[in-house]
Design brief:
Elements (H helix, E strand, L loop, with lengths): L1 E5 L3 H9 L5 E3 L2 H6 L5 H14 L4 E4 L5 H12 L5 E6 L2 H12 L4 E6 L2 H9 L4 E4 L1 H6 L4 H15 L4 E4 L5 H9 L4 E4 L1 H6 L4 H16 L2
Parallel strand pairs: 1-2, 1-8, 2-3, 3-4, 4-5, 5-6, 6-7, 7-8
The structure holds erythose-4-phosphate.
The site of erythose-4-phosphate has 11 residues, from helix 7.
């Protein structure tokens, strides 16, 4: 399973990248706004800055909702760097645009996916990635990870090549459960990635080893 970081914060992206296990980045307009970025030029520069840190897929989301607008915006985003993946919402014109991008060799990430039916449509259009939002599903008292498993089963049975990118990750346990049910990628906040490191027995064991090593000096 690949690890993407779900942020537009350059310090966090750098920290995750330095771990050596980062396979990409996802952003969305809310994450970009959180960084205080204003204006088209600043947005473009920020995407370029991310691409210069992580030489791997970086999802940049369109804000148009009509076919022509999504295609125009996507072409501009894709021209920023060869690692840009155009992130397109799961709407009718979005599906049409994903098919256009597929036919024109531009990678896509179909976002705001909450059902298996939507995931089938994204795969039919040739999306490179499909992003089911598992945390937001959990927020509504459903099990988001179950949806990842369902999509994984369908894609395997039908031979779809779209990669399942589990998004809206809230906890380290989400990452483990997504790995169990066949997610191809998890895009996570830095805290959830670092949370995977933690176990009290590791801390206790290390403290003991270090103290015993000291007693031998
Ligand atoms: C990433 O591609 C999604 O936009 C993101 O994971 C959504 O996360 P949220 O539900 O925490 O906003």
């Amino acid at each position: 399973m690949k690890f993407f970081i779900d942020t537009a914060n350059l310090a966090q992206i750098t920290e995750a990248n330095e771990l050596g296990i980062l396979d990409g980045v996802t952003t969305n307009p809310s994450l970009m706004a959180k960084e205080g970025i204003k204006g088209t030029e600043a947005v473009m520069k920020h995407y370029k800055d991310i691409c210069d840190i992580v030489h791997a897929p970086v999802s940049a989301e369109v804000i148009s909702t009509d076919f022509a607008g999504i295609v125009e915006e996507g072409k501009i985003l894709a021209a920023i760097d060869s690692n840009i993946v155009v992130k397109v919402p799961m709407i009718k014109d979005g599906i049409k645009a994903i098919k256009w991008f597929t036919d024109n060799n531009i990678k896509t990430n179909c976002t705001l996916v909450f059902s298996a039916g939507q995931a089938i449509l994204a795969a039919k259009a040739g999306a490179t990635y499909v992003s089911p939002f598992i945390g937001r599903i959990d927020d509504g008292n459903w099990d988001g990870v179950e949806l990842i498993g369902q999509i994984s089963h369908i894609y395997k049975m039908q031979g779809f090549e779209t990669q399942i990118l589990a998004a809206s990750i809230r906890t380290s346990l989400h990452i483990v459960r997504c790995a169990e049910v066949g997610a191809d990628v998890c895009t996570c906040p830095l805290s959830s990635i670092l949370g995977l490191l933690k176990h009290p027995l590791t801390d206790l064991g290390l403290a003991q080893f270090l103290s015993d090593a000291k007693s031998m000096q």
